[in-house]
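Pinned message: reference record for 3-carboxy-cis,cis-muconate cycloisomerase
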Amino acid sequence: MAGSVHDGQIYSKLFNAGEAARLFTDSAEVRSMLIVEGALAKAQGGLGMIPEVSAAFIHRASMELAIDPGALQAGAGKNGVAVPSLVAEFRKEMQAPEHAQYVHWGATSQDIADTGQMLRLRQLLTLCEDGLKDLLGTLARLASDHAELPMAGRTYGQFATPVSFGSHVSAWGWPLLDLLKELPALRETALWVSLSGAAGTGAEFAGQGAALRAKLAEGLGLGDPGRSWHADRGPVLRIASWLARMAQVLGKMGDDLILMAQSSVSEIKLSASGGSSTMPQKQNPVQPSVLLASARQVLGLKAILDGAGMPRQERDGAAWFTEWLTLPQLCLSAAAALQTARDMAPGLTPKAEEMHAVFSDSLGLLHAEALSFRLAGVMPRPEAQAKVKELVQEVLASGRPLGELARDAFPELDLSGLFSPETQMGDAPANARAFAAAVSAL
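Predicted structure (C-alpha cells):
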C-alpha cells in the first residue's frame, strides 16, 4: 500500500479528494512559494526597499519560471526546510544576478512556507464551499420531497417515536449549513499572510515591517494579522478544526446510512454499492463507509495537530514538521469525504414500503409515548405511564399489537389517529421543510 491512499494508484479513486488533490503536491507547494517570493519583491519595490526594476524582474520571473521539486530534495533533507534551496534555484534560473540578489530580501523560510500554504488552503476552502453548496442542494431536495414520509426514529439503537425521512436528512444538513455560514469569518481569522523575519520581529525590514506586511497581504489577497504568528498556530488550527467538523458531520451521515442499509433494516437504496469477492448477495455500503473512515482519519490527525499547536519559543522545528506530516492528509481526507458525499447523495432513495413495515412489525410500540400522553388526558401522567408500561410488557409477551391491547383496556378512550405514523411525526415534516427553505435562501 502507498504511504497515502490519496497518492497511490489503487485506492485514490476510493478516497477521491477531487480537485483538492492538486493542492497538496510538490509542484503546488513550489508554485505557491514562488508566488509569495514574487509578491514580496513587488511589495518591497513599491516601498523602495529594493530597486523597482529588480522587483519587477523578480515578480515576472516568479510567474514564468518553473522549479523542479526534485532539486530541493537534498537541501530540505539537510536544512529541514525547502525554502533555502528554492531561493538558490530561483536565483540560478533567473540568470540575472544583479536582480536575483534581492530575492527573499529580509524574509525567513517560515514566512514563505506558511504564506504559500495559506494560498493553497484558501483554494481548498473555496472548493469546500462549492462542494457544500452542491451537497446541501441535494439534501434539501431530499428533505423536501420526503418531508411527510414516516420512518422509525431510533435512540440508543432502539425504536423511539416516528420521525420522517425528510427530517432525518435535515439532521445531516443543518450542521453543514452552519459550517458553510462560518466560512466568511474563518477566512478573515485564519487566511493570513506571514511576514516577520528571522525571530518574528521584522528587524530586517528597517522599520517598514508593518507597511510591508500590509502591502504583501493586499497583493496576495490574504489577511494582515498585524503581528507575527510563527509560534501561534491558531490560523492553521482554526482551518483544521473547521475541516474536522465537516468530516465529522459527514461521518455521522455515513454511519446512519450504513445502519439504514443493513440487511435486517434495508430502509435506503444506494445508487452505488460494492460487491464481495465470494458472496454474490452482498451490496456493500462502500461510499458511506468512506465517509465514516475519513471522519475517523481526520479526527485522529486533528488530535496530533492540536498536540503540535504549542511550539516552543519563537519557532519550533518539531512542531512545524508535525504540521507537514498531518495537515495535508487531514485536508485531503476531509475533501475526500465531501467529494464522496456529493457523489453519493443524488442516488439516495428511501424505501418507503420497508419504512412503513417497521411500524406494523414493531406491533405499535413506536406509539407507546403517544398513548401515554393520550391517557394523561384522563388520568395523572405517572399513572398513565405505568399503564402503558404494563401494556408494552403484554405486547412483548403475547405478540398482540399495542393498539389492540389499548382498545381492549380503554374502550371509552378516543384512540383515533394515535397509531398512524403519518399523524404522529410532530414537527418532523416542518423541520424538513424549514431546512430546505434555509438552503434555498442561500
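Pinned by admin. Summary line: Residues 311 and 318 are 8 Å apart (CA to CA).
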